[in-house]
Amino acid sequence: MTAVREVPKPGVDGGAGSPLDAATFGLVFRRSGWRAVLVLVVLAQLAHVLLRPRGWVYEWRWATYQYQFSTVLLAPLVAGIAAVIGRRWSSARVQLASSPRGGLGLVLGAVPVTLVVLGAYVAGFVVVVVLAKGAGTPGMPSAGELALFGPAMAQLIVAVAGGYVVGWWTRSLLAAPLVAVVVFAGLLGGWVGGEVALVKVGGASASLVGLQQAGSVIQNQVVFFGFATVAIGGVAVARLRRSGWAVPAGAAVIALVGLVPLLNWTGEPLVAVDEPMVCSGESPRICVAEPYERFVPDLRSRLDPMVERLQVQGVAVPVEVRQAFYLGMDPGVGAVAQEALVSEDPQAAEFALVSAWLHDECTSAEEMRAQSQVLATLQDSLRSPTAAGLADLVAALDAMCRP
Amino acid sequence: MNVIRRRAIVARALGGSALAVGASVTAFLAACLPDTPIDVIGRSSVQALLWPLAPVFLAACVPASLAWQARPQEQTSPRPHLELAARYVGLLAVACAVVVAVTPIDHRAVIVRNLLLLIGMGLASARWLRSGAAWVPVILLSIITWLFGTQLGGEPEPWAVLLAPRGDDLARTASATVLAAGVVSLLVGIRTAQGGDRW
Predict the structure, then answer these.
(1) What residue numbers bound the domain in which A120 lies?
(2) Fewer CB within a 10 Å sphere, N or C end of chain B?
């Protein structure tokens, strides 16, 4: 008679081992297709970072916020991938349903993809850091800026949970594309439908000097996405176990607490912030946000020839040129846009001077067209060392649209 | 068994259910798409970028609808693979017609062109990728086109053929080429599934 030795099998209720021992988790991880997931996520992140405009490399707040925009690409993708894994995991449905720790086994199936996605997401930020440091941006992101990862990662986790549970329940090959399209359509719907605070965890096409993501929005997004994940997972586990509905019900209520303020938020989830400005020099004094201080000498060298031309012709130059930001500028102060500040093009700096003589009162199309014509002529004249009549052009521009 | 019931069974066996779901959901999404300008900061003509991507879900269902190729009864089917392919393409054409029917006339030319390109991609993906991953290229191309396919002024990037205007030669050529590659992949797939002895 042959002696048979009992070998504990790794598995969700595997033999004598704990359901979460290293062997079990290692087996689940190896069978999860994590390499394919990792490759897809890394490619998606690289596409996002490298294919979009990279004006953010000079400013940590903008860089960090813009990086989170990649969830628009990543969330549908990982939701679809999770649906595939959920469908595959559902082949163990009977065993899990009859196991005392089947609920844990169900959740365990989604853990590898979640870890890989979050790991790749955080690691992908290294590319952003490298690009920003390569552009000479001083310092590193602050803790407040890194907090922007919270809502983004929570959004990815809820996308994984949703996709996984749909794949698990439907056991259909259609689950993955359906979930991916629904998540993408939901994100787009939020963006174009006015529920920006609900779906937007990052993304800015211009400098965030003077702005930051609202703290309350960050908190509510984390609460909503986090507890929605618990609710989704809890429903799946409770349905499998046919008990324990209190957990998903409670989580859904807490998720609603986070959801309501997000639905009530109007417009972009950004708030004004007191931006420390660094000022230097005179005629004009140049004031920029701290991350851009190193561009001031170059800006001044581009402005000096134009300032000289204006002074020679008796035009009083603006007292101050300030980095333009979202909340507008004071009258008589020149505004320099971030793009002009970091550009080496001398012509990009012209607007910093002439904007001091523009007035918001020009509102009709006819007034704005006339203003643009004078503005263009003045900019042309500023470029030419021999141009005359600068004083007349400045006076004409300054007088436009005044009551 | 009457003719209609028999045909329904054949249609279902040839992935008709998946195509029906694909066509229904796509038609619903298309019906929800706005045709009037939407006020989105930085993307003033955003509605113009939504329509070209409308066919994506139907195309993403194509790999799932081709799962019948892997069934033992199809692999040993006495029917010639060309007949199977023709029947499947007929079902696909009906699904496409449903989507096109709910599309406003102004967008139909672009929708048809993009539908053909994405379906070609779906057919090819079904042949060359595993069933769990075959939907990815179709979805990924559409999302990447949306995210990266426009220049600052709103003009489509040269590679973003899905966003190209009606009559764009490059986009037409791309659609025809990808569709042809997809149909060839379909035929090769059926032939391979049947053991390669029925050319």
Answers:
(1) 22-272
(2) N
Q: How far is residue A67 from each of residues A49, A54, A110, A146, A298, measured CA to CA in Å? A: 7, 11, 24, 11, 28
Question: Looking at this protein, which amino acid is placed at residue A388?
Answer: A
Residue A269, exposed/middle/buried by CB under 10 A (0-12, 13-18, 19+)?
Answer: buried
How far apart CA B33 and CA B54 sit, in angstroms, is 8
Among the partner-chain residues B21, B138, B143, the one whose CB lies closest to the CB of A174 is B21
Amino acid at site B22: G
Burial of A253 (0-12, 13-18, 19+ CB in 10 A): exposed
- Write out the two tokens for A305: 């020839």
- Domain end among A272, A303, A329: A272
pTM for this entry: 0.87
Distances in Å between the Cα of A246 and the Cα atoms of A102, A104, A169, A231, B54 are 18, 17, 20, 10, 40
Q: Of A208, A242, A272, which residue sits at a domain end? A: A272
| Chain B residues within 8 A of A88 when measuring between CB atoms | 132
Position A250 in a domain = yes
Same domain, residue pair A301 and A227: no
Residues A243 and A358 in one domain: no
Q: Are residues A287 and A260 in the same domain?
A: no
A181: nearest CB among B34, B139, B147: B139
CB distance A173–B64 less than 8 Å?
Answer: yes
- Test B64 with A73 for CB contact under 8 angstroms: no
Chain A residue with CA closest to B67: the answer is: A173
pLDDT tens for residues A170-196? 999 899 999 999 999 999 888 877 788
Residues written for chain A: 403
Q: Is A286 helix (H, G, I), strand (E, B) or coil?
A: strand
pLDDT tens for the 199 residues of chain B, in order = 677 777 777 777 777 888 899 999 999 988 888 776 555 555 556 666 778 888 999 999 999 888 776 666 666 666 667 777 888 888 899 999 999 999 888 889 999 999 999 999 999 998 888 888 899 999 999 999 888 888 777 788 889 999 998 889 999 999 999 999 999 998 887 777 655 443 3
Number of domains into which chain A is organized: 2
Q: Which two tokens stand for residue B155?
A: 């003009």
Same domain for A258 and A319, yes or no, is: no
Tell me whether residue A5 is in a domain. no
Mutation pick from B39, B139, B151, B159 vs chain A, by most beta carbons of A within 10 Å, is B139
Tell me the nearest-neighbour CA distance from B109 into chain A, angstroms: 22
